[in-house]
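Table S2 (text version). Query chain:
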Amino acid sequence: MSLDTGTLTRELCVRQDDADPLAGFATEFELPTGVIYLDGNSLGAKPRMAAARAHAVVEDEWGTGLIRSWNDADWFSAPGRLGDLLSPLIGGGAGETVVTDTTSLNLFKALAAALRIQGGKDPARRVIVSERDNCPTDLYIAQGMVEFLDRGYELRVVEDLGAPGTWDSVLTEDVAVVMLSHVNYRTGAMWDLAGVTGRVHQAGGLVLWDLAHSAGAVPVDLTAADADFAVGCTYKYLNGGPGSPAFIWVSRRHQDTFWQPLSGWWGHARPFAMEDTYEPATGIGRFLCGTQPVVSLALVECGLEIARRADMTAVRRKSLALSDLFLQLVEQRCAGHPLTLVTPREHDRRGSHVSFRHPHGFAVMAALIERGVIGDYREPEVLRFGLTPLYLSHVEVWDAVEALRDILDTGAWDQPRFRERGTVT
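Corresponding structure-token output:
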């Protein structure tokens, strides 16, 4: 909804909601009364069916079925079964995705695989390329990998890969892997997945994509992009619950050449043969490691069941409409305040969250949260607002910006209690 700012009214937002083809999905989530939730980019809302599913797993499958439920309730196949449910949401096929472990662990596995593949073709390719503003945990994992290998490997961190001419200078003959977040965690800036993948391949490299802020929020087609590896989480736009297991996708051309150092028994070809030598399973199963968290996996299925019924074209259209509305309202109603947009305006360059810098960003966000408008904060000075199409309305965007305007106009954020920080921001 890109409208002239002079035409924007709350009544118009109500009419937009009345015509919204995704409006019915909001009833499938439970959110507290009086809360406008703009943090689905960090933790998705609870599906209404989640409590009943958790109860069934704990009381019936575990409580009554006990260990028999590994077979009777099909616990054992959950990582692959859920992977097949998730895979179409990222442009993958059956047998290409598993839901397991954390994003960081899956990134470690995929990075190890990519480096081994490249080392087998050209031992001189020992450079991992990423950007300074990549998700910090991704950089930490790559730093740890370089130290672990200790054989002349290097993490090359680039300040701004998007600057003119940078790719030409970065993609040298020693580059093995380029590791990027499809949608930037802080700014919401989005890479051209297919374009970057093709460019890296042309230079002889492999690409590892982090889809943590993409999956379930923007259309992703890993197959069409000819991607190599991708990882991501299920607790953001896929609404799997706090700390729910992540996912890893691997192109079929790499699956049976894959090697990972986390060679646990769930990735074995015959885990219950209890053999004393590791033999990896064929296909995507070799990306598993240890025993899986059954209750958490069960909750992931609740979120995936909803996401699979939503048309991603409609989801993306509404995401852009909500973020356009948010941007227009902030610039109209909060003019004169030191808010600096750090999210690209172009539709093809942004994900589903919008970020502004403010010199007192933490305190401003804390004041908003006290008002029931829940976003989050990231250093330095960044207020993040997630626009989640399945349970957020246009009128809630209007009301959220009105709360922000009032807090800024009155200086309500300028109180000691809003500067007190907990462990999590």
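Notes on Table S2: The chain is about 35% helix and 15% strand. Confidence is low (pLDDT under 50) at residues 1-5.
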